Amino acid sequence: MKPEQLESLRAVFRDTLGLETGAAVDDLAYRALPAWDSIGHMRLVAAIETAFDVMLDTDEVIDLSSFAKAAAIVGRHLGGA
User: Which domain of life is it from (predicted)?
Assistant: First the structure.
């Protein structure tokens, strides 16, 4: 992903999970925060799909277990750009 796309993904994570602006999310993993529970996970998936105009398949939704995995998944949808 391009640096600006990574920053957009960071913003999606911060906004969706209720984190402060500038909060570190690169090492964040599923259930590391109370907000990233099963419902928070689905909110995060929806926010990612909206922000990047992509549609994640079921396997990707299940595999999205960290910020790093989210970046890899979104990067594939964006053509690795």
Answer: Bacteria
What is the structure's pLDDT at 80? Answer: 63
Q: Report which of 74, 17, 76, 78 is spatially closest to residue 48, judged by C-alpha positions.
A: 74
CATH class, range 3-77: mainly alpha
| pLDDT (0 to 100) of residue 1 | 87
pTM: 0.93
